[in-house]
Amino acid sequence: MTPDLVTLHVWRIPRTAVPRALARMATHPARLRRMPGVRFAKLLGTGTGTGFGPGDTDLTRWAALVVWDSPAAAAGFDASPVGRSWDRLARAGVRVELRPLTSRGEWSGRRPFGEPSGGRVTGPVLALTRARLRARRAVTFWRAIPPVAAALRDAPGLLARFGVGEAPLGWQGTVSLWRDPADLVAFAYRHPEHRAAITRTPTEGWYAEELFARFAVGDVVGDRTVLGWAAPAGDPETVRGNA
User: Fold this and answer.
1) Measured in whole angstroms, how far is the alpha carbon of residue 232 from the centre of its chain?
2) What is the pTM of this model?
3) Which domain CATH number covers 106?
4) Which of 158, 195, 214, 218 reaches 20 to 30 Å from 242, CA-CA?
């Protein structure tokens, strides 16, 4: 079943709070999955998105991706023990509300976003990629990433991008936000570096498991600079995207 709502929560913490964040990463995943109304959830570390090695890690930014039974259930996240704990730790945070448009592949043996039927969208979209690397193919994958990351940085219509991962190495992905679907499609299918990486994927056998999903962006509530999204001067804190 395709969920009506997925939320992405991202927190920026002071460097002095990193040990406490690491402790939460050890204890909070199970607590998050047990919350009422949660279908699927992952606590994630983040990176700059320029690579996937240890040097890319950003220990001052952490994230949670949550698939909900209903918007009413999602409304309780901020008041939950997990949500309150991260808010106390953070110096800034943001919540992005998402509606699945397409999803291909699996995450931890599941299809967390169901089988969305797509549909016409105007306004911002978010792309999520996630993969579990085969250890013997990791080096060739890491060597292939820098040209794609450099091309993404300058892609027209890109609003924000960063890496995500369940572990420092081998369990990784990317989040990218785009001004509209046309900008995402232009990069994904027409940019030569990205097309070359897509072409190599089946022959190189990089992934033991992979997922690609696309979402319509609804409300973005909080400090968008936590995402790396530089808001224009005078832009309101809460921004509505696709209804």
Assistant:
1) 22
2) 0.84
3) 3.30.70.100
4) 195
